[in-house]
């Protein structure tokens, strides 16, 4: 009997624990207070990309295949950012590029499509915006495809639905590669003056590999392309004016006068900030910058991002007096009119 008593005590304790422990486990969760929860972190393929499907569809005319590719707007923006800006650029610069791409297509949706194939909203070339789909990007980027597309996709998702407006209207969100140190007024190249496309300083462009370039052509080719004949004294013209962005405004060659943009186009130069010198039977042409110089400089945007500027600061620097707005109402209005 002495040995049985400890056994009964142990059995009693076991039964007590059996009843009490479940009660202790259940009681905390019967309270209305919650101290934690199950977090959810989905992969880009399931969570982030799903958000891109909920947008208006864009029909892109693929010029090489002569077909039309239709896809959600935000996926189109990914394809444009991928085609227009290096994925190696800073994330804030990619976000700024996403806003320009989205703003452009929103504005394009409200325009006449008379110059487009039936059923198309936009072409995939520089006539509108360069666009590349996943298959093309995989071929272009090779082993770097995954990290590059993930980076650009995140930039688009982080700015989803945002566009650049002036007086509640999408702007002409022009951009280019590299400035000569300043951007240009819109009226330098186009007949119309836009208040948000004014010359601003862009010193970051000096770090661009495209900041300076040189082109050498024969005297005969120079004369033929400009439709002039150089004087026999060896002179090759005089710059008679400069633009607000310090490009060539006008240049006089022999008895002919040209605007800087005209010379750039006729001689196929990188920019309209040029100088040249004649060396025997050749003309050596030096240029600064790459592109028309109006709107956002891509290398300037990347330089700003490297200094810690946000995409909003980048946008407000290159486009004067603008706002960043959500495109939902404008998209609805555009599609209802078509």
TrEMBL record:
Q: Does the UniProt entry include the keyword Transmembrane?
A: yes
- Fetch the InterPro entries from UniProt: Bact_Sporulation_Assoc, SpoIID/LytB, SpoIID/LytB_N, Spore_II_D_firmicutes
Source organism's superkingdom? Bacteria
* Stretches of the chain forming a coiled coil according to its record: none
Which ranges carry the Sporulation stage II protein D amidase enhancer LytB N-terminal domain? 64-166
**Pfam families found in the cross-reference section:** SpoIID
TM stretches of this protein: 7-29
Keyword Ligase part of the UniProt annotation: no
Q: Which UniProt keywords apply?
A: Membrane, Transmembrane, Transmembrane helix
* Name of the protein this chain belongs to: Stage II sporulation protein D
Its gene?
spoIID
């Amino acid at each position: 009997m002495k040995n049985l008593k400890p056994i009964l005590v142990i059995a009693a304790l076991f039964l007590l624990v059996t009843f009490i422990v479940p009660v202790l486990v259940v009681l905390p969760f019967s309270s209305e207070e919650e101290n934690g929860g199950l977090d959810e972190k989905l992969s880009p393929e399931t969570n982030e990309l799903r958000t891109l499907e909920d947008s208006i569809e864009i029909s892109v005319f693929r010029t090489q295949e002569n077909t039309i590719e239709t896809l959600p707007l935000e996926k189109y923006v990914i394809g444009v950012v991928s085609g227009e800006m290096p994925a190696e650029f800073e994330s804030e610069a990619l976000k700024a590029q996403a806003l320009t791409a989205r703003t452009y297509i929103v504005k394009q949706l409200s325009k006449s499509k008379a110059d487009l194939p039936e059923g198309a909203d936009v072409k995939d070339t520089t006539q509108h915006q360069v666009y590349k789909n996943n298959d093309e990007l995989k071929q272009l980027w090779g082993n770097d495809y995954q990290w590059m597309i993930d980076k650009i996709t995140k930039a688009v998702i982080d700015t989803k639905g945002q566009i650049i407006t002036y007086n509640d209207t999408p702007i002409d969100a022009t951009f280019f590669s590299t400035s000569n140190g300043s951007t240009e007024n819109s009226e330098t190249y186009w007949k119309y003056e836009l208040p948000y496309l004014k010359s601003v300083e862009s010193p970051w462009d000096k770090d661009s590999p495209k900041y300076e370039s040189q082109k050498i052509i024969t005297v005969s080719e120079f004369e033929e392309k400009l439709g002039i004949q150089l004087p026999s004294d060896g002179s090759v013209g005089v710059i008679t004016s400069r633009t607000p962005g310090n490009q060539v405004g006008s240049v006089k060659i022999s008895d002919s006068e040209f605007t800087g943009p005209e010379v750039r186009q006729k001689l196929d130069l990188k920019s309209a900030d040029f100088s040249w010198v004649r060396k025997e039977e050749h003309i050596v042409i030096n240029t600064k910058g790459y592109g028309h110089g109006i709107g956002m400089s891509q290398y300037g945007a990347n330089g700003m991002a490297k200094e810690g500027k946000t995409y909003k600061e980048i946008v407000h620097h290159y486009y004067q007096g603008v706002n960043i707005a959500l495109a939902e109402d404008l998209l609805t209005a555009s599609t209802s009119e078509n």
